[in-house]
Amino acid sequence: MTFAPSMDDLMTGKDTPDPLKYAFEQKRGAHAGGPGRPPLAPEQAQQRLSSLLSAGVTSDKRRALYVHIPFCRVRCTFCSFFQYASSRKLVDQYFGFLLQEIERKGRTQYAQSAPFHAVYIGGGTPTDLSALQLTQLGQALRANFPLTSDCELTLEGRINKFDDAKFNGALEGGFNRFSFGVQSFNTQVRKAAKRLDDRESVMARLTELSQSGLAPIVIDLLFGLPHQSTSIWQQDLEDMLATNVSGVDLYQLIDLKGTPMLEQCEKGSAPPPADTATKSQMYRYGNDFMERHHFQRLSCCHWSQDNRERSLYNSMVKAGAEILPLGAGAGGNLGGFALMQPRDLERYQVSIEQQRWPIMVLLPKSETHLKSQLVGACDKGVISRRLLGGDLYEHARPLFAQWQQRGLAKVSDTAVAFTLAGRFWQVNLCNGLLSYLDTNPLSMEKSA
Ligand SMILES: C[S@@+](CC[C@H](N)C(=O)[O-])C[C@H]1O[C@@H](n2cnc3c(N)ncnc32)[C@H](O)[C@@H]1O
Ligand code: SF4
């Protein structure tokens, strides 16, 4: 009997003359991967995390630290990451607790047993910390955790009020990569989204920071924002180029549930964001632009202009590396568990005061190492035979052939390389492949 795998449009994409626009309806959420196991009860979670942290690392996976700073001065209308409006008092108080957590976690056997390859300070807006706090934070992390000699230490944030004192303070702390959310340079688009500063100030400051040559400066741009016409998007890319940043992320606007922007659109007080077909064309333009200017594509949505930008942390996260979380609202992944720390500041602070680990959820991970690696591979736009292993690669060939036929990938004996359309729909392709492997386990083919 020959093996006839079961497949549907959610795995293969639709058969359409324009796969970039229409292969799928919209970006599909993460593949659930079968029923997950329930989170540990609070006391059990404390004990399990204590035992994970008192053991040395068992895997040779690369690992990173993630530190969360949950404050922003003003909430941008499109953003679902916003947690707390910053006030000096709130930030200072939080910072004290964060340093305590850094010291406590740094003393564990888990922390000391192997070096970390990357550190990422994300938010919120970490650049809202004071210059002195930026120095202290970097120094505390370097003093308490072993880091590799080429460790990437990223500070995320925005240009607003990021003056020389803060830049120098962060450099003194050891930060060696700066990632600024710009979203759009256009002043009208920025104002409507409640971004601070106008186009000229953002461009001037980014140019200054890049020209200093002191560290790679990378930025995030969004496409699909209200008021952001195609010509504004084209100008955004030209503006990015003019600032001479080392790298850029091009993100399509998604996940608007619960954001002020969605509310404004529903009330009719703001124009709607772009639909998926329009965003696909903006993505095409972005890709062509990067190619024309000889940027190097590091993933489906990230490009580097020079060899200073490695984007190490982002690719490690996508590929399921161990991440030790620090701070309220930080998420991580260690010893086969997903760990989410409390988002609520008071809950976080009480845990630190009581010398307990700040845990909101500790969950045994249901996904396999292979799944994490596939997510990382799809994020890069290439699934190699070496990664899947010969048997599984051949087993998935019927699906790959459908992708090729639908213009989403080019398949060879060594790898599946996503086309432009495949890269735009990479999350759907990844989920399609995972569903295919669930629905058609390798054992089925062997018994056929
Ligand atoms: C957590 S934010 C922090 C950035 C920084 N606070 C800032 O103001 O730019 C990181 C990135 O998430 C992206 N982001 C936020 N909301 C998004 C959305 N609705 N869709 C896609 N990307 C989004 C933005 O590009 C942003 O730069
Ligand atoms: S984009 Fe940045 S500054 Fe704006 S709300 Fe989100 S995290 Fe805060």
Reported for the largest beta sheet, the result is: 9 strands, mixed
Gyration radius from CA atoms, angstroms: 22 Å
End-to-end Cα distance, whole Å, is: 5 Å
CATH architecture of the largest domain: Alpha-Beta Horseshoe
Percent of residues in helices comes to 40-55%
What is the molecular shape? globular
- The mean pLDDT is 94
InterPro entries: Aldolase_TIM, Coproporphyrinogen-III_oxidase, Elp3/MiaA/NifB-like_rSAM, HutW, rSAM, rSAM_sf
Pfam family, one: Radical_SAM
Cofactor: [4Fe-4S] cluster
Organism: Ferrimonas sediminum
Q: Can you give me a brief rundown of this structure?
A:
With 448 residues, the chain is of the alpha/beta class.
Describe the structure.
With 448 residues, this protein is of the alpha/beta class. It folds into two domains: 9-33 and 369-447, Arc Repressor Mutant, subunit A (Orthogonal Bundle), CATH 1.10.10.920; 42-318, pyruvate-formate lyase- activating enzyme (Alpha-Beta Horseshoe). Helices cover 44% and strands 18% of the residues. It is built from 21 helices and 17 strands. It has helices spanning 9-12, 19-22, 42-54, 88-106, 109-112, 131-144, 164-173, 187-192, 199-212, 230-243, 260-267, 276-292, 312-318, 345-353, 369-380, 385-388, 390-395, 397-405, 420-424, 426-439, 442-447; strands at residues 63-69, 71-72, 84-85, 116-123, 147-157, 177-183, 217-223, 247-252, 296-297, 302-304, 322-326, 331-334, 337-340, 361-364, 382-384, 409-411, 415-418. The strands form four sheets. A nine-stranded mixed β-sheet has the order 9-10-8-7-6-5-4-1-11, sandwiched between helices. Helix 7 (164-173) links the parallel strand 5 and strand 6. Helix 4 packs across helix 14 and helix 9 (199-212) packs parallel to helix 10. The longest helix has 19 residues, at 88-106. It starts with 8 loop residues before the first helix and ends with a helix. The model has no long low-confidence stretch (mean pLDDT 94). The structure holds S-adenosylmethionine and iron/sulfur cluster.
